[in-house]
Amino acid sequence: MKVGLFIPCYIDQFFPQAGIAAFELLKKLGCDVDYPTAQTCCGQPMANSGNEEDAKKTYKHYVRTFRDYDYIVAPSGSCTNHVRKHYDNIAQSPDVIHVRKNTLDFPEFLIDVLKIESLDAHFPYKVGLHQSCHGHRGLKLAKSSELVGEEYSKIRTLLNMVKGVELINLDRTDECCGFGGTFSVKEPEISIKMGIDRIDDHLRNKAEVITGGDMSCLMHMQGISLRRKDKLRYMHLVEILNHT
Amino acid sequence: MNHAKKASEFIANENRTNWHDKSLWLVRTKRDIAVNRVAEWEELRELASQIKAHTLSKLDDYLLQFEKNALKNGVQVHWAANGKEHNQIVLDILESVNAKKIVKSKSMLTEECGLNPFLEKHNFEVIDTDLGERIIQLRNEPPSHIVLPAIHLKKEEIGELFHEKLNTLKGNSNPDYLTAEARKHLREKFLNADVALTGVNFAVAETGQVVVCTNEGNADMGVHLADVQIHSMGIEKLIPQQKHLGVFTRLLARSATGQEITTYTSHFTSPKKDGQMHIILVDNGRSNMLNENNSTALKCIRCGACMNTCPVYRRSGGHSYGSLIPGPIGSILAPIKNENQHADLPFACTLCGSCTNVCPVKVDLDKQLYNLRQQITQNGNAPKLMNFAMKIAGRVLSSTFLYNFSGKFARIAVKYLPRFILYSKLNIWAQKRELPKVPEYSFKEWYKKNNTHE
Ligand code: SF4
Question: Which helix (H) or strand (E) holds B105?
Fold first, then answer.
């Protein structure tokens, strides 16, 4: 089984430690993993801003880069969701279909494909989980609060495998952080207010670390926290899963 | 861009924003409790969605069936292609019965048609009898929510308003007192009305009946006291059969307010003895939406749940949308009708998808908003700056070389440019947020160095 690692652009440039953790974690779990260096972006920033047309080239480049892998794993619910749900406007060749179907977010790959039941990881902190909306409602990584049905959460299941992690409960389990790509600069006041409310929920409930499956949400909240000098650390989910 | 500007005005008063957010979150929480008591909730939503989709696919047939049955019941049925025709029909009815005073119970449709100003121009007295609607009518402003039209106001502001307009005690903003005073004031209006006009929640094709759901009983009160009753409805309110009604009444109140059912569910079938009953079927742009792209928004039953859950709406207030119907569904309906004027609304959203999950009839709101962004951009109506910036990003990110170059460039810029330039007014990101700290190397650089077999 050949695994291609997709690293979103902002992780590559600003949070390499999350990319490194993702790579090391897959190695640790025995995967034949490879990071094709020709990769760029999934095209979501353009498409969400209404430029799906311009994103087509990026989509095709993504497919070309990853078509030879059995699975493409990305530490991002948002990018994964975009590849799976929105690559409709290019011809659906066998390569495109293969790549779309097999692009998975980390929680999906670890739980649904590798079916891991334990992890050799240790992280003795109070952790708050911020569910990124695209992973949460798009990929259905957990039951969202609006729906009626049985509770489940792939991310919580994984975090519970890490020794020492104390998962805190939030007042609003799955509210959006307000990042929203270009929304963050188009509507800065609302975006920041949403971020503040989200962070305050974690602080009220005594989190020491905020984690989540999407670095973009964390980058936004971390930016606010740095300015406000909050006593909080931000780490990508894979960093905690890889922590010993 | 309009929404961003009005939102920033609303949010400038942080206390009000917090209070507005919490009030609506409370409604969302009540909704959650109510729907979790219905084990088959998700099946109900699916069923409702299918009934609506089916009805819309044969809307012409069902409308004719409805008309036939309503006529049989002794109802006078009118067809209005747009708001202007609707208002004229109402005016003709009023003149034919020599009416002077009209009581109305909650109807977003008549707001949509601009009925009040039209009738006032013709010297009629029109009184909105739903408490929230009456409050905003007295303030002479549009509703900020489709179910809770005065949710943007604090009780103190309502106390002031009532003191000024209804002569209540100065400084008294006790909700019970204010409600009782409003009742007295409205009772007199009810007793003297010549004609009662209501909106419609559901119209049953099989029976020719219209159904109105209220909590205050004002639709009943109005209709029972006036000799002439008028029901104005959008053509999308139709459902095929009586047995389908239960699916929707179970969904509506739970989604809207967390009640199991509205206090009153009034079924109007035929005129009173010696009275008149009119039903006005209004198109006003709806039939244009009966295409594969836009028809799902026509399933909407106006419960308001997507507003209550929307994290942007809760913080920006209903008036920031600049359209009669705000929030997620309004951000779809408004640009479909007038793309130029409302092009910014589908972008006033983080695509979090919560609206889609709460919607009782499964309107795929976030997908519609995403699609509208594409359509608006292709039509050249998207905000220019963003368009240009994204075009560049499109080119840069599709080419590996350029990506490496520009990404690195950004990283170096963040590292070495003086803080006063990076954090200038032009950098909207950084006005209240720090930029990420800059690492020594990118992931790609790390990988190339540490995995030499590549
Ligand atoms: S779109 Fe759905 S949630 Fe929003 S008002 Fe209509 S029915 Fe309610």
Answer: strand B101-105
Residue for token digits 């709806």? B286
A106/A159 Cα distance (integer angstroms): 12
Sequence ranges of the domains in chain A: 2-113, 126-241
**Mutation test of ligand 1: which of B44, B329, B356 has the most ligand atoms closer than 8 Å to its C-beta?**
B329
Q: Do the bridges between strand A2-5 and strand A103-105 make them parallel or antiparallel, or are there none, so unpaired?
A: unpaired
B281 lines ligand 1 (CB under 6 A): no
Check pocket membership of B230 for ligand 1, CB cut-off 6 A: no
The CA distance from A2 to B8, in Å, is 49
Domain B296-384, classified CATH 3.40.50.740, yes or no: no
Determine the Cα–Cα distance for residues B256 and B28; give it in Å rounded to an integer.
8
Nearest by CB to A189, which of B8, B386, B442? B8
Which DSSP helix (H) or strand (E) runs through B57?
helix B41-57
**Is B38-287's fold the same as B296-384's?**
no
Are residues B102 and B193 in contact, defined by beta-carbon separation less than 8 angstroms?
A: yes
Among B239, B301, B308, B362, name the best residue to mutate to test ligand 1's pocket (greatest count of ligand atoms within 8 A of Cβ): B301
- Contact flag B315-A179 (C-beta cutoff 8 Å): no
Answer whether B328's CB lies under 8 Å from B306's CB.
yes
A chain contacts of residue B454, beta-carbon cutoff 8 Å:
34-35, 37
Question: Do A15 and B436 form a contact (C-beta atoms < 8 A)?
Answer: yes
CA distance B115 to B232: 11
Q: Does A7 touch chain B (CB under 8 A)?
A: yes
Domain ranges for chain B? 38-287, 296-384, 399-450
State which CATH number among 3.40.50.10420, 3.40.47.10, 3.40.50.300, 3.30.450.80 fits the domain covering B38-287.
Answer: 3.40.50.10420
Q: Is the CB of B251 under 6 A from ligand 1?
A: no
Chain B residues whose beta carbon lies within 8 Å of the beta carbon of residue A10: 436
Bridge partners (DSSP) of residue B264 are B214
Nearest CA in chain B to A36: B454
**CB A194 to CB B315 under 8 A?**
yes
Judging contacts by C-beta atoms under 8 Å, the chain B residues touching residue A146 are 32, 309, 354, 357-358
Task: Indicate the CATH number for domain A126-241.
Answer: 3.40.50
| Atom of ligand 1 lying closest to residue B302 CA | 5
pTM recorded for the entire structure: 0.94
- The number of C-beta contacts closer than 8 angstroms across A and B is 223
A183 lies within 8 A of chain B by CB: yes
Return residues 108-127 of A near B (CB < 8 Å). none
Of B36, B42, B386, Cβ closest to residue A186: B386
Query: How far apart, in whole angstroms, are the C-alpha atoms of residue B83 and residue B285?
Result: 9
**Tens-of-pLDDT digits for all 454 residues of chain B?**
589 999 999 999 999 999 999 999 999 999 999 999 999 999 999 999 999 999 999 999 999 999 999 999 999 999 999 999 999 999 999 999 999 999 999 789 999 999 999 999 999 999 999 999 999 999 999 999 999 999 999 999 999 999 999 999 999 999 999 999 999 999 999 999 999 999 999 999 999 999 999 998 889 989 999 999 999 999 999 999 999 999 999 999 999 999 999 999 999 999 999 999 999 999 999 999 998 778 899 999 999 999 999 999 999 999 999 999 999 999 999 999 999 999 999 999 999 999 999 999 999 999 999 999 999 999 988 866 555 555 555 555 555 555 555 566 566 666 665 565 556 555 677 778 887 878 889 999 999 998 865 4
